[in-house]
Specification:
Number of strands: 17
Order of helices and strands: EEEHHEEEEHEEHEEHEEEEHEE
Number of domains: 3
Radius of gyration: 22 Å
Shape: elongated
CATH class of the largest domain: Alpha Beta
Helix content: 10-25%
Distance between the termini: 48 Å
Largest sheet: 10 strands, mixed
Structural class: alpha+beta
CATH topology of the largest domain: Pseudouridine synthase
């Protein structure tokens, strides 16, 4: 067996070529890292260990898995990522083929090669009953809270992802912004050379202040679309440290995906999922 260690300290990679049959993942990693068996089990459960066989590479979580000659075991270790806070998602609806969740601000939509324990799809896999595989079909920024759909089969994931790509799913957001823009307003400004349209439908002025809560529908799904568009019209989202003027670190990004409407590809029924006002962004919900 050969090993390739790229770095040491709190972040490193190991790539171990399997040259003997009947070795387990935990035995190999214990020998080549010096970590305790309990720590290796935790690392594997958090999604930092991968296995390559032929052209296929996938995560493995079972420490006792027997490996075979020709496979390659990968460890992507990052102490900072493995120690990150795990947020709790809330189940809104379990529809069998898919489920709808409330993702809090700070929770990831997807993980990385260094781990996925903090991702919404992993939360769904480990908390939904009965347990099912979970597949991400769309994303919310880490700082954005709100509704997210998780598929529970490859077939369901393909059907839902197709609907998102074809813009067959209506997506609505609440954004707490600086200032009081004119409404209704349609912002048609390309992002990264791609068409991007954000519609501001209505607003509610907050306690006679210079802040307002906007009701927004997006017709496209570009990266940071709402945040960039609202910054462009000089009404940035409160708490936006990237595109706005966030001055108070205790305030999260005040942006919530609060409503999703579509015709289900599984039963052809209209589906309407909507969060109550208690989930809307507020200046009274500090970290």
């Amino acid at each position: 067996m050969t090993a390739n260690l790229k770095t040491v300290t709190d972040k490193f990679e190991k790539h171990l070529n399997i040259s003997n049959d009947n070795l387990t993942a935990i035995d190999i990693l214990s020998e080549h890292t010096g970590f305790s068996r309990q720590k290796i089990k935790q690392i594997m459960q958090k999604g930092a260990v991968w296995l390559t066989q032929g052209q296929s590479t996938r995560r493995i979580r079972r420490a006792s898995k027997k490996l075979t000659i020709g496979q390659t075991l990968h460890l992507y270790y990052d102490a900072h990522i493995l120690q990150q806070t795990e947020y709790s998602a809330r189940l809104i609806a379990d529809e069998g083929d898919y489920s709808v969740w409330f993702k809090p601000s700070g929770m990831l939509s997807q993980g990385s090669k260094y781990g996925d324990h903090g991702a919404i799809y992993r939360w769904a896999e480990t908390h939904l009953q009965p347990q099912r595989n979970a597949f991400l079909v769309h994303r919310l920024d880490k700082a954005t809270s709100g509704l997210i759909i998780i598929a529970h089969s490859k077939k369901a994931a393909a059907a839902l992802a197709k609907m998102f790509s074809e813009r067959s799913i209506d997506k609505y957001y609440k954004a707490l912004v600086q200032g009081i823009p004119q409404v209704p307003m349609s912002i048609d400004k390309p992002l990264e050379n791609k068409k991007a349209i954000t519609n501001i439908l209505s607003l509610e002025q907050i306690n006679n202040s210079d802040n307002s809560l906007l009701d927004i529908q997006i017709l496209t799904g570009r990266k940071h679309q709402i945040r960039q568009h609202l910054s462009y019209i000089k009404h940035p989202v409160i708490g936006d440290r990237l595109y706005g003027k966030a001055e108070n670190d205790s305030i999260d990004l005040c942006l919530t995906a609060y409503k999703i409407i579509f015709i289900s590809p599984f039963d052809n029924q209209k589906k309407h999922y909507e969060l109550g006002s208690e989930f809307y962004p507020s200046l009274y919900n500090p970290k």
